[in-house]
Amino acid sequence: MAVVSPYPWAPGYYDDGDRPQIVTSRFKYDDSYTLDRYHATGGYEGLRKALTMTPADVADEVKKSTLLGRGGAGFPAGTKWGFTPAGVWPRYLVVNGDESEPGTYKDRLLMELDPHQLIEGCLIACYAAGLSQCFLYVRGEMALAHERIATALNEAYAAGYVGKNILGTNFSVDVVFHWGAGAYVVGEETALIESLEGERGMPRLKPPYFPAAVGLYGQPTIVNNVETLSNLPFIAREGSAAFTAVGTETSPGTRMIAVSGHVARPGVYEIVNGSTTFRDLIYGDEFCQGIRNGRELKAFVPGGGSAPWWLPDQLDIPFEGRAAGAAGSMLGSGAVMVMDDTTDIPAMALTLVKFYAHESCGKCVPCREGGTWLYRIVERIVAGEGTDEDLATILEVGESICPGEMPHASSARLGLDAVPFPYKMTTICFVGPSAYVPIHSALTLFPEDFAARVTKREVRAKIPVLAVAAD
Amino acid sequence: MSRLTDANVALAREIIARYPRPKSALIPLVHLSQEQNGYVTEEAMRHVAELVSTDQVTVTPAEVLGTASFYEMFRFEPTGKFLVNICGTLSCALMGAEELMHHAEHKLGIKAGSTTADGMFTLQHAECQAACTEAPCLQVNYRHQYRVTPDELDTLLDELRAGRLDGDIPPHGTLGRVRQSIPTDKAVGAVPPEDVTEAPAWIEVTQ
Q: What ranges do the domains of chain A cover?
């Protein structure tokens, strides 16, 4: 049996030349990760072109492309670079390759199948924003990605693309491979920086809100996602106009979306941003080809484990941030998880609640205590030992993590109107709310699945308390 | 013998030199010790503390433990030659992860979280492994296996036990078998941030 099986959906899919391929153009080659293949397919031409321009002009070109961050928050990359305070040096680039949001599978592919594209993207960013050292932080649990990136960096140094006086210019930068050791929360950019400083990976208190102002070693630091940076060689080589020609004005370019769960053809697809809808993706012939075994769709998670769930009513929403937000969820990290009508909703929500409870770093009390509490309650319900009271307690605990109204989808079946994303939160980062989001979605959209699961019980007799003097 | 070997100390110094502050090398060095010893020992943590300390900044062994204990991958007790992590997060759960875990427990005769008596296998529940379209998935020493059926799991465990996959899957602790190596004539070199006051050479400062 093969130790690393090939990517099962890939044969044929990436060969199709009709589809815009900005970041996955080399996936069709068996040797996509080698320097030879990279050279043969336009590799490092973006860097060469960038080096003939001034750094400010390169930064301007990226800004004009309106490249949105692909890590989850969707912030424009060019704008983020502009947040570095004038005259403060040195500045660093930290690459966020700690992909671990449930359902997300794209950065690992980009690192394993096209590491040179990522390295070239890092170099372009460093040149444009004046970043004097780059740290490529790769999730610890990705041994193959480690090997491919280390090999690619060794090749790139030998070829003069990285290091001192790159391609004979005065542009010099080291790209350092760094590896994590397993902690979801480290995907949060300030936690990533803590981890890179050799500390426990806990998010920093805000403000300052952006590491671009105060980041690694207290210096201005740009933290960009792997997919975001992998778009830069194309933008530098072909120009921002070629990039914005794909997709829509508010969401240009493409996105890599991993669709998993109960679809006929799960896979990672590069889709046109902004205009492709969830229906295209889940039911389209070129993508997932519908629900497996001809079953019906029950619900889906549109943007990674932290995103509120959607119903079949939301299938026609496009991959566009504002549309997704208005419909009560987010596009997040490009991860769609599909559940058919055989799905045990409480049990599946439990896997996500467990994930976030387990991944809490322990810094904020509502997340540390609340997440674990939610996990225990949902576990009890799934085991058939929950009560009516437990359902009310879930909402009460949730209120302490996310006060006020929670975003959710509209449902014709339940007569619910959508509440827009995002929510309010009592924690520094999104791990805490993320423990509540899936169970809140499941409970709001499928109350009958929970009602059927809990055993009704009289509210316990109140525990005697000391009498309080009446006023 | 759980301090780093001379060869690994040389490698550790090379890694430390890449960072503006030595403590940044802490996690990579603990990985290196786990690669050498199969798990993270107290002596190794003492040694890592020595290596990342400088004349100005002392890093204590307790700080090394403080950082290392935060991270999932570091194990502080003897671990099987093969660490089998079966994913149980949503995408894998939808595709039968729980059944796969039950099957693995029966096949190995241990509960998740424990190690077989012969020291060959440690079995663990794991969270999302970024292979969600290939569910259910698992990792052996952080190498992925995709769309694993119970029968395939049996075959995999048999092959591993017989040593037939040793060429593909190194023992627990070893991550990438290729390391970054920066040639000295090409390296820009890491400078402590306080020693840098000017813009890099390619940036023209107008002011």
A: 31-244, 247-340, 344-455
The nearest CA of chain A is from the CA of B168 a distance in Å of 7
Contact between residue B136 and residue B101 where contact means Cβ atoms under 8 Å apart: no
CATH class held by domain A344-455:
mainly alpha
Q: Which class is A247-340 in CATH? A: alpha beta
Domain spanning A31-244, CATH architecture: 3-Layer(aba) Sandwich (3.40)
Q: Give CA–CA dist A95/A265, Å, rounded.
A: 31
From chain A, pick out residues whose CB is under 8 angstroms from the CB of B57: none
Closest CA to A432 of A387, A374, A348, A382: A374
- List all residues 6 or more positions away from B155 whose beta carbon is below 8 Å from its beta carbon: A1
Gap between the Cα atoms of A193 and A185, Å rounded? 11
The verdict on A289 touching B (C-beta cutoff 8 Å) is: no
Place of tokens 């709001």: A444
Helix or strand run (H / E) with residue A136? strand A133-138
Output the pTM of the full model. 0.95
Please determine, for residue A329, whether its predicted confidence score (pLDDT) is greater than 60.
Answer: yes
Mean pLDDT across the stretch A1-20? 59
Whether residue B52 sits in one domain with residue B10: yes
ipTM computed for the complex: 0.97
CB contact under 8 A, A181 and B72: yes
DSSP per-residue string spanning A296-357: -EEEEESSSTTSPPB-GGGTT-BS-HHHHHHTT---TTTEEEEEETT--HHHHHHHHHHHHH
Contacts of B94 in chain A (CB under 8 A): 260-262, 337, 339, 343, 348
Cβ–Cβ below 8 Å for B156 and A1: yes
